[in-house]
Amino acid sequence: MSGAPLPNGIVAIVKRDCPTCELVVPVLAQLAESAVGLTVFTQDDPSFPPGIEAVDDTGLDVSYTHDIETVPTLLKVSDGAEVGRLEGWSRPDWEAFTGVSGLGVELPEWRPGCGSLSVDPDRVDALRVRFEGGVLRSRRLQLAALEDEMEALFERGWSDGLPLVPPTEARVLRMLEGTTRAPDEVVAVVPPILVETTVEKIAVNAVMAGCRPEYLPVVLAAVEAACTDTFNIHGLLCTTYFSGPVLVVNGPIARRIGMNAGHNVLGQGNRANLTIGRALQLVIRNVGGGRPGRDGIDRSAFGSPSKLSFCFAEDEANSPWKPLSVEAGFDPDVDTVTLFAGHGPSAVVDQLSRSPEDLVKTFATRIAGSFDPFFARRLDNMMFVVGPEHARVFHGGGWDKMRVRQEINSAVFAASSRGVPDAAWNSPAIVFAGGDAGMFSAMIEGWVSGPMGSQMICHEIRG
């Protein structure tokens, strides 16, 4: 952000409603009489500090555009550019910073500053709109005085059937604080009508979905991944099948933003899980035109909850196995989102098996009971979310994810007498998550895999 111009020399930002600013008034008077070239900007009272001619910054132009977080703040300015900054009051630091000795000898040596009015929660949204609103390129929607903003979003066809958060300028700008990417950066070309979508457009839909700003990088990565030929969101929209995008988040970001990987992992109650998945769907709907119904491109005969939101994190901290992202070739500390075209989940219940050889038969039986055996020849259209108690049985028998896959494949294809195709050994996908009580896992059935359908994709999340 380009800051308001500053005079050369020492610049002080103060406010009357700050005990430390009141404390340092004698020091500011000393500096005003010195040769440092002092200029004082005051945030709340043009007559403060008394006896010193100050510049009125009650509009907070200088304070906001120069990112002042604390008062008093001293800035050192040379050729119109800031070359140094000091916050609060510290006699030795102020003397070294200004080059003036003997400052405030009668004062305490140190006092902390106060919060700047430019970061006051009651003011910052309005300031952000005032100073940064010009970066937004989206069309502004004017509502009639008696028009209900919630109902207006429904009436304009932007909702997935649930209420939306109105995407005001302040909320969209606040959402954009969650990423370092420029608002006008093109993220993807969104099917089915192949419209370029920018970071800003995705932020608008993330606001409507109920996301927090720290979720935005995950949403951006999900949109990037969904709009690739590999994942083929266009084909997934057009099919009459049940499936929609299933998102699995790996890496430190999942814990940082508070995603659920444990109890009720595929259910309700976690804001990050539900709103991230919903935001992706809203982008596809509102930017790409991927709407359901006879007049829409989404032709699913029944649909499923995954068409609203299906997003969760892998429980890496407690997993006995490599995370999904590491299996895809990423380092453990890299944040990723994996997209899988699926629906469900279906329950995998086995409370009796105590050996992996017995337990794997239950998994294979669930597959055999869910698909035409011929369709099941490609098990990369299948994902298992393995719960802790089932994982303990597999791991206790020395089985890693690859061994579990191999044994599932062998059991499935032995039953079908069709042999095991080479491509099957890396499938189905296996994710560790869920509550630590209950010998359950979940099976997420998928859509057609391969080049003619949707292939699972793991995509890096950028800030």
Describe the structure.
- This protein has 463 residues and is of the alpha+beta class.
- The protein folds into two domains: 9-120, Glutaredoxin (3-Layer(aba) Sandwich), CATH 3.40.30; 151-460, no CATH class.
- 31% of the residues lie in helices and 19% in strands.
- The chain contains 16 helices and 18 strands.
- The chain has helices spanning 19-23, 25-33, 61-65, 91-98, 124-132, 149-155, 169-176, 199-209, 216-226, 233-238, 252-256, 271-286, 324-327, 356-370, 388-396, 401-416, and strands spanning 9-14, 38-42, 55-56, 70-71, 73-78, 81-87, 89-90, 110-111, 114-115, 186-190, 195-198, 244-250, 311-313, 336-349, 382-386, 429-432, 440-446, 457-460.
- The strands form five sheets. Strands 12, 13, 14, 15, 16, 17 and 18 form a seven-stranded mixed β-sheet that branches. A five-stranded mixed β-sheet has the order 3-2-1-5-6, covered by helices on one side. Strands 4-9 form a two-stranded antiparallel ribbon.
- A hairpin with a 4-residue loop joins strand 10 (186-190) and strand 11 (195-198).
- Helix 8 crosses helix 9 and helix 9 packs across helix 12 (271-286).
- It starts with 8 loop residues before the first strand and ends with a strand.
Q: Gist?
A:
This protein is an alpha+beta fold and 463 residues long. It folds into 2 domains: 9-120, Glutaredoxin; 151-460, no CATH class. It contains 16 helices and 18 strands.
